[in-house]
Amino acid sequence: MSWTADALPDLAGRVAVVTGANSGIGLQTATSLAGHGATVVLAGRNPSAVRDAAARVGDAVRGTVRPAELDLASTASVRSFAESWRGPLDLLVNNAGVMAPPRPTTTTDGFELQFGTNHLGHFVLTGLLLPALAAAEGGRVVTVSSVAHHSGDESVLDANAGTAYNAQRTYGNSKLANLLFAMQLHRELTARGSSVTSTAAHPGVAATRLFSSRQGMGAKVAVRLLAPPLLKLTTQSPATGARAVLYASCVAEPGSYTGPQRLGETRGPLGPARLSAYADDERLARRLWHVSEELTGYSYDWRPRPTA
C-alpha cells in the first residue's frame, strides 16, 4: 500500500509515549504524532539529548511534546518512569534499542545489553503502564522489531547468555523477543477481553544512529565514521522508515506485523511483514513470557485498576 504519515488521523487529545525518541525512527514517529495533534512524551536515556529533541520538535508541531528520562537498561529507571505516570495513555511505542555491540556488555541489572534493553526493559514498562493504557479509549502498544529477527532462534530463551557472544546473533534474538512479546501480548489481551491492543512493526533498513551508536556497532571507530554517509546513500531516511511504526500505531489491525515489502523487506510500500517460524511459534512465545517474568521478577497484574 502507498500509505504515508500524511494519512494519520487527527490525534488531538491523544497521549503517546515513544521510547528512544531523541533520534532516528523514534524521533520521526514522535514528530509525526505530535504534528497531527497528539501530546507525545519523548522518552530516552540521555536527558539532555531528549530535552534538545523535544525543543526542536515542539517548535514545528501543533501538538505538545514533553521530554522524559527513561533508561531501558535499568529496571529501576523503568519503574521510576512508569510509577510517576498519571492519567490515561493512548499509545505506547516500544522503539528504543541497541544493535550489535562488538563486545559483550551488560545492563545495570546484569542482563546482556541487547536482550535487556530491547526486550526486558519494554516487557516491564508495558506491564507497568497497562492500567494507564486500559484507562484510555482504545489504548495501543506498538513494539518495533526488525528483519534481523529472522536470525533469531530458540536460544532466545537463554536471554543471550547461554552461548559464546556473537553480536549479530544476539541482536537477532533480541528482535525475535520483541515479536514474540508483541504477539503473546495480543493473545493475552484478547483472552481477557481487554480494550488494549498490541501490534508490531519494523522499519526496514534506514539511516539512523542505531548503526553508529557507541553502545552498539558504533563502538568500532570505522563503523561510527563510515556508516552515516554510506547509509544515507543506500538506505531509506528515518522519516520513510517510521511509516510502518506510524501505521501500526493508528491503523493496523490488532495482532498484526507491518513492514516494507520490497528488496527483502528493507524498503518499499507497506504491507504485512513476514514472521519467521520462531516468531510465529505460540509455545515459544509463552515460554519466553515466563522466562521474562523470572528474569525481571515482574509478573503482569491483569486486574483492572483505576488511574489518577
From TrEMBL:
Keyword Oxidoreductase: yes
One Pfam assignment: adh_short
UniProt superkingdom: Bacteria
Protein name as catalogued: Short-chain dehydrogenase
NCBIfam families, sorted: PRK06197.1
Single GO term (MF): oxidoreductase activity
Keywords tagged on the record: Oxidoreductase
Similarity field: Belongs to the short-chain dehydrogenases/reductases (SDR) family.
Gene3D superfamilies: NAD(P)-binding Rossmann-like Domain
